[in-house]
Design a protein that fits this description.
heterodimer; A: alpha+beta; 3-stranded antiparallel sheet; 49% helix; B: mainly alpha; two-stranded antiparallel ribbon; 2 strands; globular
Chain lengths: 365, 362
Amino acid sequence: MFGTTEMQINMGPQHPSTHGVLRLELKLDGERIVDTRPVIGYLHRGCEKLGEDRTYAQAIVYTDRMDYCAAFAENLVYAEAVERLLGVEVPPRAQYMRVVLAELQRIASHLIWLGTHAMDIGALTVFVYGMREREFILDLFESYCGARLTYNAVRVGGMPEEFPEGWVEEARRFCDVLPSRLDEYHQLLTANRIWLARTRGVGTIDGKTALDWGMTGPCLRGSGVAYDVRKAIPYEAYADLDFDVPIGEAGDTYDRYLCRMEEIRQSRRIVLQALDKLPGGEIRGKVPRRIKPPKGEVYHVNEGPRGELGVYLVSDGSEHAYRCRFRSPNFVNLQALPDMVRGHLVADVVAVIGTLDIVLGCVDR
Amino acid sequence: MSETLLRFVVVPVAQIAVVIAALLLIVVYLVLLERKINAFMQVRLGPRRVGWHGLLQTVADVIKLFTKEDITPRHVDRLVFLLAPVVIILPALAAFAVIPFSGGSFRVGSVGVRAWISDVNVGLLYLLAITSLGVFGVVMAGWSSNSKYPMLGGLRSAAQMVSYEVPLGLSVVSILMLAGTASLVGIVQAQESAGRWFLFWTPYPQILGLFLYFVSGVAETNRLPFDLPEAENELVAGFHTEYSGMKFAFFFLAEYINMVLVGCLVAVLFFGGWLPVTFGIPGLREPLSNFFPFWGGAGAMLTGFFWFGLKVFLVLFLYLWMRATYPRYRYDQLMRLGWKVFIPLGLGHVMVTALAILVRRG
């Protein structure tokens, strides 16, 4: 006698917890999700096309604007790709500096993820705590390159500048403080019954499916696949540094949470080691004034905070890339969202968006 | 004639005016307190610009809400849409008619003035009845907005408030059995003559009752961790998404008034209302129940306000503390908690209380 109909509801692009301008078309049965369709493209700025229109050195600025929560990682992968095209060797000191900054960036990015993810689930305080520690890293970046968000802090063939005076000590001081702050987050969340209820068994994805979707980064490792570009295809100085790759088992939101929390600790370990081993010497390799790579193409990957960042460059021998293409881990990870939330409730969509840790700037490029 | 006028018109009207004015003032500063406490727990400073340490911040916010354009979206069901804020705030205010804020009395002419508007012998029943009316406002708001997010919020709220009414009622039942009266004044007096609050009642302290009451109260007032109807990260603003200006302020006001109400009721039912905190030392009782003996009954009333206010403040502080600490439950988990945990617990609690009363009588 009483029929029910599915309700279509529009989440975003202006919604407090779609992390920017993601739009989801949800098909609901009551509060249960029947189907989801992510609609992207609201933040498309043509970064790839711009990369073909500007010279190689200029294009680094545009990589800043893609993943604005981890601009350094994007700078780095682009610069490395150009270096491979040119066949330039990067001096060891620059390599170690890059590792230090990249890992600090990873910590900052994971702190944003932690804060926003926890806030989406309703834990307001963790957000502010995470931002407090991130502020420290932003200050470090600011004193290194002058910018707090869009760094443009890598040059093809090396680094633009030395670490300023006292910078290394400041970075060490941050590393000293971090563990106690991490314990604070764990105290607020890890054993919290409500947190467990909201994250365990939510957005579960097994390792094989995750691989099939092409997911990378913590989202893949949370499902038990120990794939980390830093280990698989070591770049920069990672081969000389000692760190673990934390993996989860269940592949649910809680495991991904634990994975990322442990990654923060591992990143801190890497930063400390790299600071200890920091060699002296040049910070820029031999790069011609006008960067004109020989004809050819290159595909280069890095481990960004959100997964495998890839750059594909085709050079036609001129100052501009003939083709520039970025592989965004956010874009790939987001594709699994409909699978991960099917059958869950509306509240879980928010949790899963949080756990995928997407940055729309990188999804849309 | 003039005494009748005084007794039945002037004094009650003055009392109502005082209660409403005080409530509004309390709510204004409760909002500020919430922001400040949350800020301090989150290593921030909170509002500081308007007035000394931001003391006038919420006043400014209220002025802003008053002067804002009053928008009624075109697609709403106008009558119900306009009625909903009224329906939600009236019961919230009306509930305070039976709350005894303090003991003592003073005389105005020949009329004795007490610190409650009325002492109804079915006070508790009245409260349960009138507070459950509030859900109508929420449902009306959610439905009449004719929009999807508010509707989801309204439905969640209806389910939540109806489910948590039951454990709330159950924890009140055992208080009823202990006090033997449904009058709130009677309940406080029963605790006074027993010499201890119902929270510490022997042989079965009502700690479980307090827990049930408080948690259900938090769920009833839609606060974190049970703020699903207005979960801003999921439903934007829940049932009041389409409201703005003063109409929105009414929902906001009702929420905070209800918080104060829960605080008052916890104080009355479990913490002995206006009775002083004596730590069980009988000698302390006399001096602590009246700080101003030279004012007689008025002094006792003032002292009672202090103790009552302190207890209410503690409950409200707990509210704010929880908000800063816990994540939010999910809708189905909340329902499961209500029906599968709280209601059985409440039933068991009532039975144990009944047994304890039998034991006590011997």
